[in-house]
Each structure stands twice: as structure tokens, then as C-alpha cells.
TrEMBL record:
Keyword Metal-binding (UniProt): no
Protein's name according to its UniProt entry: Proton-coupled amino acid transporter-like protein CG1139
Superkingdom of source: Eukaryota
Keyword terms, alphabetized: Membrane, Transmembrane, Transmembrane helix
Domain Amino acid transporter transmembrane: 48-450
TM annotation in the entry: 79-100, 143-166, 186-203, 210-230, 250-271, 283-306, 326-348, 369-386, 392-412, 433-456
Native source species: Bicyclus anynana (Squinting bush brown butterfly)
Length: 460
């Protein structure tokens, strides 16, 4: 989104229309001419990020509130199988993000456009793709990407609201056992959060929220360190005596949470578009995802090792009720509250673009705030009905990230590869697409069903 202090220029307007799907893409160069297109020099001049700064942005983007639920998913799957799979999925997610960025950079040369969003890339893939019969569905593909991003981020807001409510309930009751029932029950705490969530959701400028993301990452790092400390302090059992693997159901529940805790596929194009040297995106992803995987493994491994079968989400719930842990729990709740606003801002901007067409521009200020309140009330209702953190996160990971992170990128890359450079010896690029897509579909179908069943069972 462009944040400008004055009236938008014609270049800015063109850029905004392109991102919103008002631009028809067509092939303007092929072969070496497309590869020689210097898209970085064609981008409008502004302050951009170097590789080190980009690594930091990737770490901030991928480390969301889901990381503090990873230890409970380790409990579902088993300690050592979860440990190994976290490393494997970290690599898979890194590669998926790289696929999106690399595909976009190849697309720039073909359509002679210097930057794109993820929905732009999806639309362009079908509009100039090798499959003539699918070109009429280019806008549908764009809307699918928009919908999946919105579902993922609005769902994340539900998770964050539940986390805040669980933390407040524990601090009010002074107990380590936070359950749905009680006086008042957890659902009442979630409902009471609707007013503060509506208030922070009224912030319409990202520049007032973005600085807090740095503080949020510092708090997450402190939570990871505290998890290790309380693990060692609790004299945990021999880790080799903990279950290596539990059940297939637990495996798919873990996969959803694990992928959700590390994903940043919806934001990778915004990060790439803002790089000083975008062709170094692979190096930035390597550094950023190394940090992300390290923190996820730390909280997951040490959290389950320390708290065992009593592990609850968020991980701060398991910390003792002494002064410093209480202070950390309060900081965590505040961090999640700000993250809620950040997560709400992006999908609402996507939705508001379509909604505002029904109203006169003079009334945009009023109706935007009305719809912000309506959306947050809807999020609160869903969170109240299904107040389970780990299952909700598992559903989001299985339903959204299987598509955004695996199925969509694999299809985009296949379309680009189809004619240039081709499918390769033995059509290995086609087989790669099939392998990634099959994995994504299995995660989508089995993971979604497993987590939906668990969500319903533990909510009623």
C-alpha cells in the first residue's frame, strides 16, 4: 500500500491500479530480452532495504504469534519427530517463498513491469500463461489469492484475541490451569476484548503500527529465552524418554501449527519489492529463515520438554506466577494486541477496496470505520465460538498456507517454465510441480479435516 502525504501522482495511481487488478498484463519480451530487463533500476526511487535489513524484515514477518503455540503441537506429534520436521518445513517454506520471488522476477521481464504483488503475479500467470483456455480465469486466480490471504490474516486475529483472553484470565484467576469454564468463563473474556480491539482497529495508517513490530520481536526473543530458562530450572526428564512419535492425527495437527508459525509467503513480494538489490532475495531468505527456524525450534523443543503433557498455548501460560514471569505475560499480551492491529490492517485494506465502491467518496471516512467495527465484531464472534488456540492455528496452517505456500507457487512456476526453459529432461519440472502440489493437497485436505474436528471437539 502506498502511504503518501500529498495527492497521489499519476505514477502512484498507475501503481495502485496495477496492484488492484486494473492492469491487463501482456507479453512484451521473451528469451534473452526478458532476462536482460533491469527491473530494479525501473522502480521508483525511495529508501530501500539492504540485505541485512531485509533479513530483519523476513524474521519480523514470519515470527508471528503462532510461534508461542508450537510447543503444544510438539506434544501432539512427539518430541523428536517434531524437531526434525520443523527443520524440514523450515526449508520447504523458505523454498516456497523463494519460488514466489523468483517467479515474479522472471515475470517482470516478460511483461516489462518492475514490481508486483502476490495477487498481481497470480493474475499475470494466467493472462500470459501457456494455457489459452485458462486465461479467462486470471481474475479468479487473483481473487483466490486475495481470499486466502484475508482468511489467513483475519483468522490470525481470532487466534490473537484468544491468546490475550487466556493470558488475562490466568492473571485474574492466579492459576496455571486456564480452562474454558470458570467464573467468568474464557468466552466472556474474549467478548470483553471487542471494545479494545475495535479501538486499535480504527488506526488506519500503518506508519503508527509498524514501529511496534520491532518491540514485538524483542518480546518473542525474551519469551524464547525464558522458555529455555524455565525448562532447565524445572529439571525436565531425559528428552530421549519422551515420545518420538505419537499419532498420525497429531502429525497433521502439528504440521498445520508448524507451517503457520514460520510462514511469510503472503508478504514475500512486499519485502522483495522494497529491496535495494532484489536479486539477493535468496540470501536474505536464508538468513531470515535461519533466525525464524531457530526460535521456533527453541520454543517448541524446550517448551514441550519442560512442560510435557501439561503444555498449553500460549507458552507464557506455562510460566510460573512470580513477578518477572507475570511481567513477561503482560508484555506478551500487549505485543499480541499490537500484532492484532497489524494483522487486521492488511486484509481489511484488501476488502475495503471492493466494499468502498458502493459508497460516495465523501462518506468513505465514516463507512470505513463502520466496516472495521463490523469485521472486528465478526472476528470476536468466531473466536468466542471456537476458543482453542492450537487447533485454530493448525486449521489456518493447513487451509491457507498449503495453498499460499505450496500449491499456488508451484503452479505459477510451472506456467513460467512451460515454454522457457521447458520441462527439462524427463519432464522433471513437471514432476517437481506434481510432488509439491500433492503434498499441499494432502496437507490441505487431511490437515484441515483433522484440525476442524479437533476444533469442534474441544470447543463444545
Amino acid at each position: 500500500m502506498d502511504e503518501t502525504n500529498g495527492p497521489p501522482t499519476s505514477q502512484t495511481k498507475t501503481s495502485q491500479h496495477r496492484r488492484r487488478g486494473h492492469h491487463k498484463f501482456e507479453i512484451k519480451a521473451t528469451g534473452q530480452a526478458a532476462k536482460d530487463y533491469d527491473f530494479a533500476s525501473k522502480r521508483e526511487p525511495k529508501k530501500r532495504t539492504n540485505v541485512i535489513e531485509t533479513i530483519g524484515h523476513i524474521a519480523k514477518t514470519c515470527l508471528g504469534g503462532g510461534v508461542v503455540a508450537i510447543h503444544e503441537s510438539y506434544k501432539m506429534c512427539g518430541l523428536w519427530s517434531s524437531f526434525v520436521l520443523t527443520l524440514v518445513f523450515g526449508f520447504c517454506i523458505s523454498y516456497a517463498m523463494y519460488m514466489i520471488a523468483r517467479s515474479a522476477q522472471r515475470m517482470y521481464g516478460r511483461v516489462q513491469v518492475p514490481s508486483m504483488s502476490y495477487p498481481d503475479l497470480a493474475q499475470a500467470t494466467l493472462e500470459i500463461g501457456p494455457f489459452q483456455s485458462m486465461r479467462k480465469y486470471s481474475m479468479c486466480f487473483r481473487y483466490m489469492v486475495d481470499f486466502t490471504i484475508c482468511f489467513n490474516l483475519f483468522g490470525s486475529c481470532c487466534v490473537y484475541q484468544i491468546m490475550i483472553a487466556r493470558t488475562i484470565k490466568q492473571l485474574v484467576e492466579g492459576t496455571n490451569d486456564v480452562v474454558l469454564t470458570g467464573d467468568p468463563p474464557l468466552r466472556v473474556y474474549i467478548l470483553l476484548l471487542v471494545i479494545p480491539c475495535v479501538c486499535i482497529g480504527m488506526i488506519t495508517s500503518l506508519k503508527y503500527l509498524a514501529p511496534f513490530s520491532i518491540v514485538a520481536d524483542i518480546i518473542i526473543l525474551k519469551v524464547a529465552c525464558a522458555t529455555v530458562y524455565y525448562c532447565i530450572k524445572s529439571s525436565p526428564p531425559d528428552p530421549f524418554k519422551l515420545p518420538v512419535f505419537k499419532t498420525v492425527t497429531g502429525l497433521f495437527e502439528f504440521m498445520g501449527v508448524c507451517i503457520f508459525s514460520m510462514e511469510g509467503t503472503g508478504a514475500v513480494m512486499a519485502i522483495e519489492n522494497n529491496m535495494e538489490k532484489p536479486k539477493k532475495i535468496a540470501l536474505a531468505l536464508l538468513g531470515g529463515m535461519a533466525i525464524v527456524v531457530s526460535i521456533v525450534v527453541t520454543i517448541g523443543f524446550f517448551g514441550y520438554w519442560a512442560f510435557g503433557e501439561g503444555s498449553r498455548s500460549p507458552v507464557t501460560i506455562n510460566f510460573p506466577l512470580s513477578p518477572f514471569p507475570i511481567f513477561l505475560k503482560c508484555l506478551f499480551a500487549i505485543m499480541i494486541y499490537v500484532t492484532y492491529a497489524l494483522n487486521f490492517w492488511f486484509p481489511f485494506e484488501l476488502m475495503w477496496f471492493y466494499i468502498k465502491k458502493k459508497y460516495n467518496s465523501e462518506k468513505f471516512w465514516f463507512w470505513e470505520r463502520v466496516y472495521r467495527a463490523i469485521f472486528i465484531c465478526g472476528i470476536t464472534i468466531i473466536a468466542t465460538v471456537f476458543p482453542n488456540v492450537s487447533k485454530f492455528i493448525g486449521l489456518l496452517g493447513s487451509f491457507c498456507i498449503s495453498n499460499l505456500g505450496f500449491i499456488y507457487p508451484a503452479f505459477i512456476e510451472l506456467c513460467l517454465d512451460w515454454t522457457d526453459p521447458g520441462l527439462g529432461p524427463g519432464k522433471w519440472r513437471l514432476w517437481r510441480y506434481i510432488l509439491i502440489t500433492v503434498f499441499g493437497l494432502i496437507l490441505f485436505v487431511v490437515g484441515s479435516i483433522t484440525n476442524i474436528r479437533g476444533l469442534i471437539a474441544e470447543s463444545f
